[in-house]
Amino acid sequence: MIDLNDASNENERLALAIFKAMEDGEVMEKIDELCTDDFEWANSGLTTLKGKKHCADHFASGGFANEIPILKTMTHFSADLVHIASNGNVVFTERVDHHWDADGRDLMTPHIAGVIEIKDGKIAALRDFYDVAVYQQEPTAPNPEYALKT
Length: 150
What we know:
CATH class: Alpha Beta
Distance between the termini: 14 Å
CATH topology: Nuclear Transport Factor 2, Chain: A
Helix content: 10-25%
Structural class: alpha+beta
Radius of gyration: 15 Å
Shape: globular
Number of helices: 3
Largest sheet: 7 strands, mixed
Low-confidence stretches: none
Number of strands: 7
Number of domains: 1
């Protein structure tokens, strides 16, 4: 889970805030608040989203599950931060992302190197780099003790 206290400066806190919003199921609301109008979001092997409107349209039409079918049953997201570092207006993260379904199966767990660019106190770009073989990953077994966070 993302902890904003892992940030050592405001740019790192802003970068972590977008991942926290993904965990909280509030990514579109937070994109509007935290990102520039021309915000660009790129993931390895997927369509690059350019601008807040493109992001909103993308998520309204099914989001990344349209390109990664295993995500069609995803109910929520979490991330394990491994490292975070920054230099000026660029924040680097290393993390392991988890895409969960209602039965507690981890559908896809990319190990990611991410680059976040900050401009005028807002996120201008988020680029995540990882092995796209994860799109074919076998989900974990259901976890009967798993409970969705409400």
